Amino acid sequence: MTGIDDLLRRVLVKAAADTERLSPPATAEEVENAERILGFELPPVLARLYGEVANGGFGPDSHLLPLTGDVRTAVSDYREERTTRESGEAVSRTASALTGTTRGTSTPTA
């Protein structure tokens, strides 16, 4: 048994003891679909937590969001944050172009 295997076993025992109704783990297909939507692979330990412990709803204050599902998920939060950030960067670039300033300065460019 590796250190990661032992860690996951201990997290599962603790989550089961602390959570009234632990959700079932995410399937391999759900993890793969989430990674496809996100555009990157989850760190291996996180993928194993979702696939071997539960699809969220455990951890400190039960705040590990589900990876997938019909409620607020880690994937939906990531996509919303990314869209907001990209939108903000686009607005910033547009404002810079309109005012003739560059990012990080307030002096018009020549």
Shape: elongated
Helical residue percent band: 55-70%
Mean pLDDT: 84
| CA-CA gap between termini | 64 Å
How many individual helices? 4
Total E-strand runs: 0
Question: Structural class of the secondary structure composition?
Answer: mainly alpha
Q: Unreliable segments (pLDDT under 50, ≥5 consecutive)?
A: 105-110
What kind of sheet is the major sheet? Answer: none
Beta percentage is under 5%
Query: Helix and strand string, N-terminal first?
Result: HHHH
- Cα radius of gyration in angstroms: 20 Å
A few lines on this structure:
Helix content is about 55%, strand content about 0%. The chain contains 4 helices and no strands.
Account of the 3D structure:
The chain has 110 residues and is mostly helical. Helix content is 57%, strand content 0%. The radius of gyration is 20 Å and the shape is elongated.
Chart the SSEs and their pairings:
Layout: H1 3-18, H2 28-38, H3 44-53, H4 74-99
Helix pairs in contact: 1-3
Key traits:
elongated; mainly alpha; 57% helix; 110 residues; disordered C terminus; 4 helices
